[in-house]
Structures are given as C-alpha cells and as structure tokens.
Design brief:
With about 270 residues, the chain is an alpha/beta fold. Helices cover about 25% and strands about 30% of the residues. The chain has eight helices and twelve strands. The protein has helices spanning about 60-70, 100-115, 130, 150-155, 160-165, 190-200, 220-230, 240-250, and strands at about 15-25, 30-40, 40-45, 50-55, 80-90, 95-100, 170-175, 180-190, 210-215, 235, 255-260, 265. The strands form three sheets. A six-stranded mixed β-sheet has the order 8-7-9-10-11-12, with helices on both faces. The protein has a four-stranded mixed β-sheet with strand order 4-3-6-5. Helix 1 (about 60-70) packs across helix 6 and helix 7 runs parallel beside helix 8.
Length: about 270
C-alpha cells in the first residue's frame, strides 16, 4: 500500500489482539504477560454469488486481496473485468462478494469443472507443469535492478508490517522502485495472501518499473502469481524451491533468494540484475 493511503488502513488493534500468556525463561519462574496475537479469519471469495475459495487471512486490505487473487489466478486479465466488490462480515468469517463480467464468469465456471474432474495428488513432477500450473506467456525483458539498492529495500520492509511488529507472525510483500525505495507493501499471516494483496494494489497504481520483495520463501505459487501479473523480478528473503526455479526459468522471471544485506542468491535470468 502506498504511504499516502496509510490513513485508510485498519488500526493494528483491529487485526491483532492481546492475550494473557505464560512466559518461560531459563533459570526464572514462569510469569504472566500480555502477548499480541494476529487475527486470522476465513475469507471467502464469492464470484457472482458462487463461493470459489476460502482462505485464512488477516482481515485487512481484502479488496486488494480479491483483486490480486483474481489477477494472479487468471480469473481476470485486468481490473476492469470486475464490476463491483463488497466486503461482508458473516457469522463464520468474511465474504468478499465480487461481481464479475459475464465472459469471465463463464470462464471461471469452466475452470471449476476442470478442477472437479482431477484425481490424484496434482503435482507429481516437473514434467506435469503444464497440468498443474496456469499457462504463462514468457515475460519480456524490460526491467533491470541494481543489486546495490537491495539493502535499502530490505531495511524498509518492516515498515509495512505493523501487525507483524507486534505479533511476529505476518509475512510481507512489497514493491521496490529501481532506486531501492519501497513504494508500497502489504502484510498477512499467509505469504500467498500478502502477495495477492500487493499485486492487487499494484494493478491500480503506476508501478511499472521495479520488482517484488517478499519476506518468505519462494514457492512455485509465488513465482507463478508474480509472472501471471507481469512481474519480471522477484526477491525472496528466504529460499526458493526447485519447482519455483523451474517455473521462473520457463516464464523468464528473474528469481532471487536468500536476499540479505550485502548478499543474495540469483537462481534465474541474472541479466536483469546490474
């Protein structure tokens, strides 16, 4: 989220709460202490009245989550294909009710029918990538990033984790401008949800040049979601999986793991990094 939009964020105490806990320290007695816990609630994405998926998420920035999920999962190609959106509290969680264009809703129904017909584990090896992943057009090579600016971005990442600073249990996803400044970021208890929130916000902003930075590991889903939304460079604070590297290689995405001050591990397409 852009800094100018900070006033519209829910206060931290609406997405985290205090709980009395017992604290143990070696050679000391147990003592009671109030501890902050992040909220985690079921969030259902409902398209044209039909529930498509339920995700456990932090209850903030849910419109951005729904938009980013719709883009990164190939349900829509552009935000204008969503005509309206309402966030509705229910007795069991939260519904994000999305009004989808008729053409996109028909495509979603076809996708749901195909998913219902699958059997087995779904992921049995790299040779089945065409079956388990979304078709991704190879990314162009229009972006570059100077690795010397990565430290600047890493220092700012915690600024987009107000709940995480209190609870220690959220992931963050942020957009890095070429000079290393973060222009926006989102957090969530789920790393995929944090990324979807960021991708949703990015689709509504003029954020073209730059890269994504995530506080988590890079699984194949994180790579796939980024590539589906046209992101050419993905930095992860932790490791990458082998399948993530395979997907990044095929989609022309530059994947970087173990992003730490002064070092990083470049897995694919290093020509974008200068």
């Amino acid at each position: 989220m852009k800094d100018s939009e900070a006033e519209s964020r829910p206060p931290v105490n609406e997405t985290a709460g205090l709980h009395q806990a017992q604290v143990w320290q070696r050679d000391n007695l147990h003592h009671a202490q109030a501890d902050w816990l992040a909220d985690e609630v079921p969030v259902a994405l409902v398209y044209n009245g039909i529930s498509h998926v339920v995700m456990m998420a932090t209850p903030k920035d849910l419109e951005a989550f729904a938009l980013g999920f719709s883009l990164s999962e190939g349900i829509i190609d552009r935000p204008s294909e969503i005509y309206g959106m309402d966030v509705v509290a229910t007795c069991n969680g939260i519904e994000v009710q999305i009004e989808l264009s008729s053409r996109r809703f028909m495509g979603l129904k076809e996708q749901r029918r195909a998913m219902a017909g699958r059997t087995g584990c779904g992921v049995c090896g790299v040779e089945q990538l065409e079956q388990i992943g979304k078709p991704i057009a190879p990314l162009p090579f229009t972006q570059t990033f100077a690795l010397e600016n990565l430290d600047t971005a890493l220092r700012q990442l915690k600024n987009y984790q107000p709940v995480g600073q209190k609870t220690g249990c959220t992931h963050a996803a942020a957009w890095i401008a070429p000079e290393g400044m973060l222009t926006g970021g989102c957090e969530d208890v789920g790393r995929h949800v944090a990324l979807d929130k960021l991708l949703g916000y990015r689709s509504q902003q003029a954020w073209q040049q730059g890269a994504v930075l995530v506080s988590s590991r890079a699984s194949y889903e994180m790579v796939q979601k980024s590539a589906m939304c046209g992101v050419e460079i993905l930095f992860a604070v932790s490791a990458a999986t082998r399948l993530a590297v395979e997907v990044a290689e095929r989609s022309n995405l530059t994947l970087v793991g173990f992003s730490k001050p002064g070092r990083a591990t470049i897995y694919t397409h290093p020509q974008r990094l200068i």
